[in-house]
Every structure is written in C-alpha cells, then in structure tokens.
Amino acid sequence: MRLGRIVLHLFLITYTIYALGPLLWLAVASLKPTFQIIADPFALPQELSFRNYLALSVSRFWIYYRNSIIVSAGSLLGILLFATTTAYALARFRFPGREWIRTTIFAAILLPPALVVLPLFLQMQTYGLVDNQLGLMLVYAAFAMPVSVYILRDFIAHIPVEVADAARVDGANEWQVFLRVMLPISRPAITSVLLLQFVAFWNEFVLALVLIRSDTLRTLPVGLTLLNTEYIMNYGAMAAALVLSAAPMLLVFATFSERFIRGMSAGALKG
Amino acid sequence: MIETAPRSGRTDRHPGEPLSRHVRRERLTATSFLIPGLLLFGLFVVFPLTDTVYQSFFSIVPAGAGAERRFVGFALYREALTEDAVFWGAMLNSTLWASWSVLVDIPLAFLLAWCLRTRVPGWRFYRTAWFAPMLLSPVLIGLLWRYILRYEGGLLNGLLRLVGLGALATDWLGNPWALLWLFLATTWHTVGYYMVLTLTALEEIPQDYLDAAVVDGASRRQQIWHIVLPILRPLLATLIIITFTAKMRVFDLVWVTTRGGPYGKTETVITWVVQRAFYYVSGQFDMGYPSAMAIIWLVIMALGILILSRIFRTRDLIQY
User: How much is the ipTM here?
Assistant: First the structure.
C-alpha cells in the first residue's frame, strides 16, 4: 500500500513534467539569448532579460496580435447575435422543418472547414470578402454555429416555460422576452460558449491562412509561421512570440479554470 | 439532450383565438429568430459544402489552345481511389492517427483520471496542469515541437546528450518515424481534455457501488472491469467519437511541422486536399479533384462515426 502510494505520486509527477515541461522550457528560453538556448538548452538564464520580448516590437508581431484580438472579438459578437437567436428558435418554437434544420446544423459539427476551403474561398471572392477581416469573422461565426447552438439550445430547452410566461403576461413580445429574460438566464451557457469559441478563434489557422492574403491583416497563428521564417536564426525572439501568443489563453484559463473545464465538458457530455 | 423542446406555452395564452392564427404567429416569430443564423450558416457552411459536391463532378480538361471545365461524372472519384498513391497514404496516416488516439490517448486519459479520482493531495493542480496544453494552438505546438525535435539545439537531442546517449541524436522530424512524433504531440495536446471528461464521469459513480464490490471480495481490476467500465461506456463511446473525428481532420500541426514530408510520410488527407487545392500548378484553380477527395473523406468520416456509434449503441450520432 505504501509502495503503491509512492508509485502513484511518481507517476503523477512524471506526467506533470511531461505536460508542463515543454511550456516551462519555452518560457525559460524566451528569457535567454539565442546562443545560450542553442549551447545549453536546459540552463536557466544567466540574467533576467526581456530583450527577446523587446525585439518583437520591430516585427509585425503586434500587428498580428491586434488583428487576432479584433477578429476574435468580432467573431464572438457574431456568436452572440447568430447562435443565441437560432438556439432560442430551435428550443422554443414549433415550425415546419425544425428537426431538419436542427439535424443539419448539428451534423455540421463533423465538417472540417479545411475540406471546403477552396469553394469557400472562391465564393468569398465573389462577395468581395477575401482579404477582409469582417469576412473572416462571419466565416468563423458560421463554423462555430453547430457547437454553440448545440450547447445553447440544450440549456434554453431546460429553462422552465413559466419563467418566460411571466414576462409575456406583462405584455412583452417574443423579442423582448428573449432579450430581457432568456439571455440573462442563459448567461452561464453563453459564457461557456464564448470561452470555448474564444480559444477556437484565437487558435484558428486554416481559414485565416486562406482567406487573408495581405500581411497587415493576418492573425497570430498564420503570423507566427511567418515570423518563424523571419526569425530562423533567432530562437529567443520566436520563443517570446510563442509565449505572448499563448498568454491570453492561459490568462483566461487561470481566471475561469473551473467554469472552463465544466464548460468544455458540458458540450461533450450532455447526452 | 432533450429530444422534444418544451412547448412555447403561447398556444394556450388566449383560448378564444383560433388556433391557426397562433400557429401562424408562432411561425412568424420563429422565422424572425431563425433568419440571421440560418442565412449565415447557409452562406458560409452549407453552400460551400454543396458546391464541393457539385464541383467534384467537373474537371479542367485541355481544349484547343486553352482549357475548359467539363462534366466528368465520377471520373475524379475513380482517379482518387485508383491512381493516387499519396491519397491512399494520407488516408492510411489519418486512420492510423485516429487509431493511435483511441488506443493510446483514451486509456492514458482513463489512467490519469483514475489516479485523481481518490482526490490525491494536489489533484486540482494536476488537473489544471494536464489540461493546460489543450488551450494552445496546434500552430504553437507544431513550432514548439519543431524546437524540441530539431537536430541542432533541439531539446530531445540535448536530453539524450545529457544522459550520454548522444549517439541516438537525430533529426526526428526528418526520418520515416516523423509521424509517430506528431502522434505524440497530439497526445500531449489533448489527453488532459479527455482526462477531465473521464474524471467528471468517474466522480458521478456512487462510491457505494465500489464499496459493495469490495465487500463481495472484488479485486481492483475486477472493480474497474465489471463496474466502472460498463458505467462509463456512454462516455467512452463519446470520447472515441470525439478523438476519431478530431484526428481524421488533423491539418494545422502537420502543415507547420512537416508539410506532409519527408516524402509524404506524414501526409494527412486534409493537408493533401489543401495542397492540391491551392498549390497545384495548372494555370487555374482545379476545384474538381480536391473536391472529390474531400467528399470521399467526408463519407468515410460519416461512415466511421456511424459504425462507431452502432458498436457502442449510443443514442446521439454526434456529441461534442
């Protein structure tokens, strides 16, 4: 029994080193000059230096960063507008074709955007939305619909009908009920969806790669691959760029970790 | 998931009114809620998909001085399935990836969750630490993995040299085993997430069940095999479907590390489709061939999920 405990803890610690090791190494490397990263990859930095971080200001890094913030925020707004209304309609109204619409939307969870990216690209061209951040936001919101609607519809369907009826008695119309009653009550589910999709938008690669052509409009994931070519001999600056690119995710996770973990499991486990 | 949405409650609000007007008004309201979302979804998801199906029947063929698009029936499907060795290699790689994930990631996730189930000291920290990689983009992971696996200044080779095994140092992503290293990268990326899902389900198993089994003289292994796994079956089915779909669609990680190389050893279906769609030199975009491959792959994915959910007899086809 005693031995079992020790083995258990050894295993837990080993796996933790495996899970966090690469990240810690990256963080440490970002504080070291490149020659030291290459010469002695495991050494701690000799002095605390943020030179690598400062070096990024002469590259396009912060432009990519700003673009990622804009696109993520815009796409989240899109989710808020499009997914909540659709989920509400699917959860609360009866109309012909409802099951059909629901099945189609949920089946699209399967669809990898990369598989349809060429027709999408040509279609966006006809709309004049290629190389356009608004276009990217719309596409992000559209591909985020299935999972978002799935989670939101499920939550709304569980809200007792009486809650909304009270507002209706007071003479509110359906849109007022939706805005003043349903949205506030659904806040936990909406938060989960927004957190989930923030991670997805921030990290999205293939659509951004194809739909954005000019360098000043690119978002971080694609930008990082470009920086990686630019900084081919500057591991230190690249490490700093990677750390900064992950920072918002880790910050959001640190702030909402419980809600986050619950939210990410909710989508999978409601069954 | 609830199968039937609760009634809106509006139909019996004014009993005197004729029903049809209510129904009509309900439909009108529903439409006002539906239009924005459906328009967005239709324009950017459904239409590109149907267009992919349509385009897969057309090919660009030489005609006179230039070239023209011509209806070719299922010819492109036949070409993909009978003449394209890279496509077959890519399908094999993607399927191997999905199988690796089911056979390695899920058992590992179960093992980790089982360790935390008894609330060992620091379990919250472990859970958070293991989950953290899930937040990173495949692009970051790919670039990071390249640092770890590169020959010169790579972390893994550094580690080998440190313990005196420097002779084993190699360019890990440049040899035929590159795919295995990418598998390990996705394992690192996603196991924490699967662990969290498993842990949530494990926590819901009443301790009484396990205690009762102990009273009956069941060993730890019997407990797991006869009590825990049957209870977890729906979850495991869900996990298998999630990992299967996730690994059948791998793109980013491969694109930023090996681009399918060396010599197609790490090509996945999606990298090959994108490669053919955008980087195939033929004067113009050849939509037909990549579209045919995309549709073949979508059908295979859908069949795979159908078969998996039949095997595990899960009610819902898709859970995410």
Answer: 0.89
